[in-house]
Amino acid sequence: MTQYLKYLTRVGRGTIEEELKSYLRLEEGWDGVGSVAPSEHAVKNAISFLHRFPDTIVGPTPMVAADGEVCLYWRHKGAYVEIAFAADGMMFGYGRDLNGNCVEARCPATGLMLPLAPSWIISEKYRVCAVLKRNDARQGYDIEIVTGADKDTFENAKKGTVQNGRLVCPETGETFSISSIRGDRRVGGETVYGLRLWENEDLVPRPDDVFQERLYCVRWVETLWNKTRRHYRSVDEDDLRREKKVLGLLKERFSEWQEKGFIPSRAIEPGAETSRLQKERGWTHWHHLFNPRQLLAHGELFSRLNKNVPANLIRLGNVADFNSKLTRYPATRETINNTFSNQALNTVYNFPVQGIPTM
After folding, report:
1. What does the pLDDT look like over 67-109, one tens digit per residue?
2. Does the chain have fewer CB atoms within 10 Å around its N or its C terminus?
């Protein structure tokens, strides 16, 4: 059986190699004005990489980008991995899956920082959920990810800490309006909103902000031949160190990328939907709708795109649509509802984050 599988793999990779060689017949402008023909160097590097890959792993799908990069990618359900080969000999690796992030706020009943979500169900199919564990030492809660949860645990996880627009204390059952958590108040017959307004340089909430943001679940997919295993894991210290590294890398590039237009820099104009972003989260600039990992991914992608190809700009818009802090993650389907799945800019309490989304 093993020999048969390896034979199928070799046949498949021969087909992949022929497809890669066919890219050498493409000419300048093959994909519209400004598109670049792939170089012989890029094609050879892709073929060389293909032959070095283990026989035990399913072969990739080849493709060529409008900027001349030759790529090999693997896609299975929610996971995506891509290796790109450029004309100058550079090789880039892109990977994608999902992290779960949530908003935190201090509970008036206990004084603890409480993770907020309307539900803690992550996957209905695999009965995966998040369970809050009180931790007085950290003045908050640890979040444990449970796979194959029993009936009671799974049912309890359906009741989130935000219900009908109110924060629900898991210790006392008391509820508090979100507007009171924000510090909104009436002055002279008008509403004064209580959140601090973010500044352009703010990439994450400041320590004394009402709403904090927190990584609480890491998900990835492992595929070997036709067998797939989906993993869900609680956040550990290594994950937190990686988040800090992402923030540091973004800060190093932030000013340059804004100046070059690789990431948003404009202030949010007031309007029926846009003003709520300031009222509900304190966001004042469009880049505040993305967390550091999203901004770093988008900036890296845009910095490498051929800007003369209109299709690339459309693709980047699609990336941003499916990878912002306004996207939603229905546990029944484990896919992403994009930002503009409706025309309202609804702020959410928990949202998925992709490292390098599919373009």
Report:
1. 788 888 876 555 567 787 888 776 665 555 668 899 999 999 9
2. N
